[in-house]
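Structure ticket #2291
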Amino acid sequence: MDIKPVTSSFSVADQVTAADFSQLKALGYQTLICNRPDGEVEGQPAAEALAAEARAQGFDWHWIPISSGHFTDEAVADFGQALAGSEAVLAFCRTGTRSITLWALAQAAEKPAAELLGLAAAAGYDLSALAPRLSAASAKR
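Resolution: structure written out below.
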């Protein structure tokens, strides 16, 4: 598990397993958002099994599966709702890219595109191809 902080309250990671939950709890995470669809690769833990264990350990759990490149307005809105009121969120997928993309899209109405792109870059993600969509959402502010 490779956790990459994006802000003081939001981080992204690659695949998380139930074995990671005690470490995540110790690090102070309260909300987990899984952005992987089930069955993406062989051996990947099923979201339902992760959800049950996460809830048993006291996490707030959200499953917003994204097939590569399909960031619907509904998924972005669901991600924004999952973030609302949460102070320590970890979102994960295979590499973290889908999770940070959803985060940036969910924040675009409130933060300038350049700031979002900069935060993503600082965490090691190049979201420059998303700039037009982020700018369009920022312009609606």
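Closing remark: The first helix runs from residue 21 to 26.
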